Hints:
This protein has a domain at 23-65. Helices cover 69% and strands 0% of the residues. It has helices at 2-33, 39-65. Helix 1 (2-33) runs antiparallel to helix 2. The chain is elongated, with a radius of gyration of 16 Å.
Amino acid sequence: MNEFNMREKFGLIIHWIGFVLGLTLSGGAALALRGFATVFVLVPLVMILFLIPNTLTWGIRRMIVGGNGFFPWQVLKKNGELPKT
């Protein structure tokens, strides 16, 4: 049981690193390019720069722990469903 808790914590740390990296990349791009890029280019670029690290680290967490939510703070019930908020 202790090993499982350690795997969950490790997967959660990896996922949070990807989430913060995605926020940093997308926020930095939005601030750096806001005067140069049009909204048509900037919005998809910011979304992609957020989704790539978050999705990659979500996949790593999913391989380590099993089923989990896409965002780090989402917790799945035992049967694999997201709880109602």
